[in-house]
Backbone:
């Protein structure tokens, strides 16, 4: 009996062991180090991003976030890219574009042979055409007021430029496309620019297939067959185009890596390898890529870290190599305390400014000028920005930022020198005993704006102004812009960095963001000329002129550029400061491990 | 009973409807979703505003939008239809998908912490209740309230600074200088001397022993570079196992039950033998295999208890089963430690194993043990942070509940009839003391799904709390509603379960339909 029990136990144990080894993992006992995968000549770098990745098409209105744009930038190439001096750099290895004619403005784009999507398909004229169709709003006939018609492609790009073109002419080689503009367009070079802004991001053959079309040619034929949309005479929506546009707009949205690899094709230096939702995205080198600056790293891991202190600690712990946290004095202090870290202090393209309404108590130029004379621009910079960037200076141009070549010249000549220092006596003289009441509106939930307001109030009161606090909460201030409930306001604009279409948006009579009622015939004329000027030097000249006109009319004053804080481990080289939204990623191919 | 449940469910549904309507309106009217675009100087501002207006359906007044949302949400009630529609977020992501991702992140973060906090909290509560007004009681109370009052973001940042960055620096060259070893040993000895009860002599002896043991262990660790190649080995498993066997016997059966003690010791011996036997099998482990092995271990323990018999067979089986499980845990722990060097030298880890962010090293490759270690190194700090702040409520609740029970008449009766102190505490007091705890545990599970917002943000985990906050900041009601529905439903269901459990646990409570 005893023996029986034991033998039964042994039998059961043996059976159990067998069953268990059946469910054992296939990997061997000794864990092979993955050094071979990560330790090749290129190496791997981890970059922190504030937001989670959400779309493989950064050009859509929904997918147009900074992280999607950065990953799109690393996985796509185009005819141009923007460097850290905000110059347009041509990438002739990708393809060429040339201005065939100035009148009418005609530009021919040709993609080089051998430039391929990561599934091996040649980047073709059809891809350029799809990019044009999405970035031009050519087919849209929606009227937002009347709620009629259709907006097909939900693009984040500004469609006003490409909308000036006729249906493009496709070259016989299948790789070229010619755009003819109905009138000259100043920012024509940015038409096929970078990912998320009309770059060649989305493969036409994939969209054609996913939208139920037979092949790429069917897509081209579909686009060719449809007429320009007219919002005054909206037509019933075209089902095939709607399917194409809907897939373009939403089909590439995904927080995870789709099982169908055609949904995340690359035509740039890197390919997306894996995505862990809300945590990380891994990019690996595109082996075929030879149509642009050659990348050094084999792998880039993008990690999602929202809070700035968490980014700093992750850098300190070696979990990430490059960070771009929200700029604050605390962050800079923490970063300065770290060893083995390169701190990159720079400026963003956004800047705070004081705008005066051309109405109410400030309708008179003398009063405006007197008010501006009291604005302590240097004190504001000292108090708000110097604790982050000790080198910071007030911004001296309404149109340029110091990163642009034209800034120095324009700042010297535009009359900003009048407003360098507070001149209470000068202001009193201009006011001639008057004590106008000025209501200043600002976002009182933004400590920087509160500080700027307090400093301005203190100084302006000395000159006799009666300052009324018109600060509003963060949810309300922006909707009261331009409603006449205030006389002056402090808020921020974002300089576009490259291109000139931003200028009339703010400064032209009736411009979409012209809230203070600025109107100047000379400036309007110069801006009308500006937006049809295709020559960069001429553009700079006109913008310099406009800048001076704005300053002369005592429009308001720019205060300071928002500081930008980036930091990288000293094991990494090639990371530089960059003011625009591409950030450190602009020269991703130069990054390398030491 | 059934009527009671149905009535509760109907009330719950009505509350949910009313509350969701309120939350929707509050979120929708908490600001202007177009605020950032209004102040923009982008040339295509109007186009972007139109796109967002269309996406969020802003032309429809919020109360009507709520009913549109409700119509989509109601489809979630249809099982297996896959028509669940909770709307889209401002970045175009379907809320159902976002919730799925966030829920996984949150649960990974808080499940372990909550279970550990409950176990540790209840144990500490009982111990402090039994030693009321002792140095230990005051010490635990002080620490519990200290951690309870500390802001968690601060605790978490300090943990990252010292627990991750500092510890990783230490691991580069894990040598403990002699003064440090002596100092740590002295502190440990002092703490134990204060905590342990009894007369001065006993305290001195215990404290001295702990001081010597801790110091020697630290010197040993330093000399052998234990932190680089950690492990327990069969000897430690045998010694620790024997300790566990005695402790479990004391708690569950009492040392007088010799059969129980013997069976648990036999189980420890079997465990040490199994330690050698299963190593090759463990090298190819999968999660399923570990679970099956765990089950088998417990079954073996129970079987040993059964065959040892004794006057109370059930007690022996329990003791042996629990001991087997714990010794099995030691073996698994040892195997994880064996994987440490290969984890440490993994190129993805770069020699800095304890992480400050996320739930895992991206792209890490390795076997079950390396991946398990990876999860451990990522979760340990947030888990500690969450335990520290949630310990107080469990400890204090259990303590007061236990004290109340210990003063009951039936406890006096139990003592008067000559029961051992062990059976009085474990058999009569402890179980009844647990009844009120059931309520707060059920309550906490609702809060658990709601997410630990601050901990999530410090450790860069994008769970439910992040989803909620992000929705609020973008004045986007859909994610807020998604989180709200999840949390509300869990809270209500668990409250119902708590009420039902109450009647099952406490014979004095009867549900009247």
Residues:
């Amino acid at each position: 009996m005893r023996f029986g029990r034991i033998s039964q136990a042994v039998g059961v144990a043996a059976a159990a062991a067998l069953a268990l080894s059946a469910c054992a993992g296939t990997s061997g006992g000794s864990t092979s180090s993955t050094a071979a995968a990560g330790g090749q000549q290129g190496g791997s770098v981890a970059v922190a991003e504030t937001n989670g990745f959400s779309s493989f098409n950064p050009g859509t209105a929904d997918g147009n976030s900074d992280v999607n744009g950065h990953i799109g930038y690393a996985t796509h190439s185009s005819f141009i890219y923007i460097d850290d001096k905000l110059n347009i750099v041509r990438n002739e290895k990708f393809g060429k574009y040339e201005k065939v004619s100035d009148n009418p403005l005609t530009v021919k784009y040709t993609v080089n042979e051998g430039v391929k999507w990561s599934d091996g398909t040649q980047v073709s004229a059809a891809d350029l055409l799809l990019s044009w169709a999405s970035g031009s709003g050519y087919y849209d006939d929606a009227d937002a007021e009347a709620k009629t018609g259709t907006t097909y492609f939900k693009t984040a790009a500004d469609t006003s430029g490409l909308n000036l073109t006729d249906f493009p002419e496709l070259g016989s080689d299948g790789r070229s496309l010619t755009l003819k503009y109905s009138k000259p367009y100043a920012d024509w070079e940015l038409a096929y620019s970078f990912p998320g802004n009309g770059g060649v991001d989305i493969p036409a053959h994939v969209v054609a297939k996913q939208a139920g079309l037979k092949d790429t040619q069917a897509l081209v034929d579909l686009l060719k067959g449809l007429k320009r949309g007219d919002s005054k005479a909206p037509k019933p929506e075209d089902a095939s185009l709607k399917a194409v546009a809907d897939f373009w707009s939403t089909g590439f949205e995904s927080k995870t890596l789709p099982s169908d690899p055609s949904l995340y094709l690359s035509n740039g230096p890197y390919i997306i390898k894996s995505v862990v939702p809300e945590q990380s995205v891994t990019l690996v080198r595109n082996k075929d890529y030879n149509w642009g600056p050659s990348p050094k790293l084999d792998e880039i891991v993008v990690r999602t870290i929202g809070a700035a202190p968490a980014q700093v600690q992750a850098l300190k712990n070696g979990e990430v190599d490059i960070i771009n946290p929200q700029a604050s004095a605390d962050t800079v202090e923490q970063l300065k305390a770290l060893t083995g870290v390169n701190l990159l202090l720079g400026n963003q393209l956004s800047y705070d400014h004081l705008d005066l309404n051309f109405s109410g108590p400030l309708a008179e130029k003398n009063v405006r000028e007197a008010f501006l004379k009291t604005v302590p621009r240097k004190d504001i910079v000292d108090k708000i920005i110097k604790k982050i960037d000790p080198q910071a200076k007030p911004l001296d141009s309404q149109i340029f930022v110091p990163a642009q070549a034209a800034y120095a010249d324009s700042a010297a000549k535009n009359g900003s020198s009048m407003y360098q220092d507070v001149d209470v006596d000068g202001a009193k003289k201009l006011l001639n005993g008057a004590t106008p009441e000025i209501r200043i509106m600002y976002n009182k939930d933004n400590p920087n704006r509160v500080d700027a307001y307090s400093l301005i109030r203190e100084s302006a009161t000395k000159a006799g102004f009666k300052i009324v606090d018109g600060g509003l909460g963060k949810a309300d201030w922006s909707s009261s812009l331009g409603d006449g409930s205030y006389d002056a306001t402090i808020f921020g604009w974002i300089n576009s960095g490259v291109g000139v279409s931003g200028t009339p948006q703010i400064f032209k009579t009736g411009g979409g963001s012209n809230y203070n009622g600025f109107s100047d015939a000379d400036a309007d004329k110069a801006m009308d000329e500006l937006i049809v000027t295709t020559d960069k030097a001429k553009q700079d000249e006109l913008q310099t002129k406009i800048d001076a006109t704005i300053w002369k009319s005592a429009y308001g004053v720019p205060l300071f550029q928002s500081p930008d804080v980036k930091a990288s481990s000293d094991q990494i080289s090639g990371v530089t400061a960059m003011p625009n939204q591409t950030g450190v990623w602009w020269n991703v191919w130069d990054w390398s491990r030491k | 009973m059934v009527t009671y449940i149905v009535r509760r469910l109907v009330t719950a549904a009505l509350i949910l409807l009313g509350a969701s309507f309120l939350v929707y309106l509050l979120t929708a009217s908490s600001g202007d979703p177009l605020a950032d675009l209004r102040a923009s100087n982008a040339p295509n501002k109007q186009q972007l505003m139109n796109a967002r207006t269309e996406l969020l359906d802003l032309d429809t007044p919020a109360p009507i939008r709520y009913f549109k949302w409700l119509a989509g949400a109601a489809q979630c009630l249809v099982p297996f239809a896959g028509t669940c529609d909770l709307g889209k977020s401002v970045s175009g992501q379907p809320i159902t998908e976002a919730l799925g991702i966030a829920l996984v992140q949150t649960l990974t973060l808080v499940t372990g912490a909550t279970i550990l906090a409950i176990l540790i909290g209840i144990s500490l509560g009982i111990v402090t209740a039994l030693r009321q007004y002792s140095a230990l009681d005051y010490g635990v109370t002080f620490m519990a309230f200290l951690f309870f009052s500390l802001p968690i973001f601060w605790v978490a940042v300090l943990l990252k600074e010292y627990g991750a960055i500092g510890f990783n620096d230490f691991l580069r060259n894990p040598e403990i200088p002699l003064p440090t070893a002596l100092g740590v040993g002295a502190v440990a000895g002092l703490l134990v001397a204060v905590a342990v009860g009894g007369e001065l002599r006993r305290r001195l002896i215990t404290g001295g022993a702990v001081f010597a043991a801790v110091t020697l262990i630290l010197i040993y660790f330093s000399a052998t570079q234990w932190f680089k190649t950690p492990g327990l080995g069969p000897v430690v498993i045998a010694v620790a196992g024997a300790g566990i066997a005695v402790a479990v016997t004391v708690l569950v059966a009492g040392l007088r039950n010799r059969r129980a003690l013997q069976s648990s010791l036999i189980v420890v011996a079997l465990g040490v033998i199994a330690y050698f036997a299963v190593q090759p099998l463990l090298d190819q482990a999968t999660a399923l295999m570990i679970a099956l092995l765990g089950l088998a271990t417990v079954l073996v323990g129970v079987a040993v208890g059964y065959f040892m018999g004794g006057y109370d067979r059930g007690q022996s089986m329990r003791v042996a089963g629990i001991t087997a499980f714990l010794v099995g845990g030691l073996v698994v722990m040892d195997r994880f430690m064996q994987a440490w060097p290969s984890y440490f030298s993994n190129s993805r880890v770069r020699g800095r194993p304890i992480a400050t962010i996320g739930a895992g090293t991206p792209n890490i490759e390795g076997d079950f043990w390396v991946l398990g270690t990876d999860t451990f190194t990522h979760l340990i700090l947030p888990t500690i942070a969450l335990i520290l702040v949630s310990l107080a409520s469990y400890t204090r609740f259990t303590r007061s509940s236990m004290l109340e029970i210990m003063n009951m008449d039936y406890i006096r009766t139990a003592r008067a009839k000559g029961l051992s102190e062990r059976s009085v505490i474990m058999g009569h007091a402890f179980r009844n003391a647990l009844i009120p705890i059931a309520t707060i545990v059920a309550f906490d599970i609702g809060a658990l799904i709601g997410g630990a917002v601050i901990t999530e943000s410090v450790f860069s985990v994008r769970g439910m709390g992040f989803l909620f906050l992000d929705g609020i900041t973008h004045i986007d009601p859909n994610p807020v509603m998604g989180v709200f529905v999840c949390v509300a439903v869990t809270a209500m269901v668990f409250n119902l379960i708590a009420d039902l459990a109450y009647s099952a646990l406490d014979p004095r409570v009867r549900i009247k339909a």
